[in-house]
Amino acid sequence: MNDNGFASPDRVGETGVEQEVDMKLLIAFSVLCLTLSSPAALAGPQQEKMKACSKEAKEKSLKGDERKKFMKGCLSNHAEGGKKK
Fold first, then answer.
1. Distance CA 25, CA 47 (A)
2. Residues 43-74: pLDDT tens digits?
3. Where are the domains of the chain?
4. What average pLDDT does range 6-21 have in this prediction?
């Protein structure tokens, strides 16, 4: 503080820099948390459907357009609660 009771200009600069660094760390941490949590929560069920359908297509030795058609139907059936037509 200087004689008139106000913070000196160089101290204000330090505080601003410290606040900026704190804000950047907070943002970086928030982004990291969202990145690590969201894909795992959202990809789980879809990934399991893909694995099951892919395994079944492989067992049936499907390739090309036959495999595409099968996968589309299989994933649709799984989306309806696992009911197969």
1. 32
2. 677 888 889 999 999 999 999 999 999 999 99
3. 9-79
4. 62
Q: How far is CA 29 from CA 1, 22, 24, 48, in A?
A: 34, 11, 9, 29
24 pLDDT tier (thresholds 50, 70, 90) = confident
Q: What is the 3-state secondary structure (H, E, C) of 6-75?
A: CCCHHHHHHHHHHHHHHHHHHHHHHHHHHHHHHHHHHHHHHHHHHHHHHHHHHHCCCCHHHHHHHHHHHH
Structure tokens at 8: 């000196």
Query: Tokens for 7?
Result: 């913070």
